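Sequence in, structure out.
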Amino acid sequence: MFDGVHLGHQSIIKKLNTISEIKNLESAILTFWPHPRKIFNPNDDLKLLNTIEEKKYLLQKNGLQHLFLKEFDEDFRNLTGEEFVKQILVEKLQVKHLIVGYDHTFGKNRSGDFSLLKKMGPEFGFEVEQVEAVSYKDLNISSTQIRKALSKGDILSANEMLGYNYSISGTVIHGKKIGRTIGYPTANIEVDALKLLPKKGAYIVDVFVKNQHYKGMLSIGTNPTVNGKAISVEVYILDFNEDIYDQEISVNFREFLHEEIKFNGLEELMVRLDEDKRLTAEFKF
């Protein structure tokens, strides 16, 4: 799936680019949409590290020439490992050299793996190599491990495993405008419904608006101090005072400040915001 395009994925792409250059072949990656878990269990509330557009950008940034996006539907789900090799890899993609991850499986009931590819390669004219796992703190880096880190607010570990700072993007929408009444106007971000949000709480972030960079402090939560119910994503941008409603904004997560807190009124909230602002201003970006 290449969800996250993390350091493990990047090692595969690096190997792919090296082989394609040596053999004068074009580099390509096959990935799927929607995530297979959504097909196996439509009620699965899986959130993803990347939107499709983010994934495309990250893959291109790592030097990939072609991205093939295959719809993961019932017909595709029922292909056996052998059928996948013949119909997809050989007939459609005309693969000459295949690079797979250390734990790669494919086909119905995970019937295809590295050994099957090695077996079928000579018959269909392709070579295959397997890339070893990339580790972080004795864990094999995976999209699952990164999701776990983000769900705990462990931004530093998530960013280390990704090889870049985790980000979210979206359109600035109208909120309740409570922040502006206490000197902290925030931009409310409408985030893709499938995008994984880190743990509820406050974060130090990079903010990118109109191709300009700013420091920011971002809140994910329900605003319990003012009896909010729905999850919102709001960012206060330091040294910024512009109307950016309906514009696109991106934030990169740098550090977890604290968990979501229900204060005994707006005065207590302002004291905490003042401290968060100080920490954000002093943070070395």
